[in-house]
């Protein structure tokens, strides 16, 4: 099976005001990210951020370059963050093997030529979620295990937003050009992520929702703070957040998501928080 990719253009907030449900989903929702033996990539014109995924089973899957990059190999001018949300797998980088267990991550710097994804077991494969951004400099590759992350507890049960945030790829953990990635898990009984909501006009962001129980869903909110829209999300779907947009969600149960950002600075806390009562 061959790898697939698609391009998403940047939308103006005035245009998005008029989108109906279908168009909103076409522009911002990313489905079918975790396909067996087939790498799917979505190239966004917001900060040229690439979102991808693959579930290697019987064979190893190569990270091929895509036509939009006009590069001789994928990481010629890019950096890459990988988080494994499945069972044990391996990322082979120019012959060097990095073993990633469940919820372990890998940062790959610019200049790595040959990258392969494989699973330890065909029956319980690895599930690799990928974020990539342009890079001006080559930083060393680094595996980020579960004990290497920075952990932050946020919210409370009373406001239904108690959650644990784990920073995997931030510049206090690993040297990066512009990519930032982490994982946030909602506690049982809590459903709201990123509430109070925020915007950061300097950076775009992509949320990948997973561990949504069967039969449940997450309503993701986007748009300018006084002009919001929602997108209903299934398990293993991602959603692009333009720099001018809030990005938060509420589930019909608790769930987990991976956030990835890129843009102007590497200051994770640089957000403009919205007053909850002023959202529209
Ligand atoms: O800019 C930061 C990102 O939106 C997320 O890290 C927020 C988040 O995971 C949360 O509050 O639950
Ligand atoms: Zn954010």
In short:
Its cofactor is Zn(2+). This protein has 280 residues and is mostly beta strands. It has two helices and 24 strands.
Describe this protein with a few key phrases.
seven-stranded antiparallel sheet, seven-stranded mixed sheet, binds 4-deoxy-L-threo-hex-5-ulosuronic acid, Jelly Rolls, 4-deoxy-L-threo-5-hexosulose-uronate ketol-isomerase activity, binds zinc ion, 43% strand, mainly beta, 280 residues
What do these coordinates show?
The longest helix has 8 residues, at 21-28. The chain has a single domain (4-278), classed as Jelly Rolls, CATH 2.60.120. The chain has 280 residues and is mainly beta. Strand 3 and strand 4 form a beta hairpin. It is globular, with a radius of gyration of 18 Å. The strands form five sheets. Strands 1-3-4-11-6-9-12 form a seven-stranded mixed beta sheet, with no helix packed on it. The mean pLDDT is 98. It is built from two helices and 24 strands. 4-deoxy-L-threo-hex-5-ulosuronic acid (D54) is lined by residues 154, 163, 165, 182, 184, 193-194, 205, 247, 259, 261, 271.
- In the CATH hierarchy, the architecture is Sandwich
Strand order of the largest sheet: 1-3-4-11-6-9-12
Which topology does CATH recognise?
A: Jelly Rolls
As for the number of domains, it is 1
Order of helices and strands: EHHEEEEEEEEEEEEEEEEEEEEEEE
Distance between the termini: 45 Å
Q: What gyration radius follows from the Cα positions, in whole Å?
A: 18 Å
Instruction: Provide the residue-averaged pLDDT.
Output: 98
* Shape summary: globular
Q: What's the CATH class label? A: Mainly Beta
> Helix/strand/pairing class, anyone?
mainly beta
Write out the distinct hetero groups bound to the structure.
Answer: 4-deoxy-L-threo-hex-5-ulosuronic acid, zinc ion
Count of helical regions: 2
**Low-confidence runs:** none
* Strand portion: 35-45%
Binding site for Zn(2+): 198, 200, 205, 247
Protein name: 4-deoxy-L-threo-5-hexosulose-uronate ketol-isomerase
Function: Catalyzes the isomerization of 5-dehydro-4-deoxy-D-glucuronate to 3-deoxy-D-glycero-2,5-hexodiulosonate.
Pfam family, one: KduI
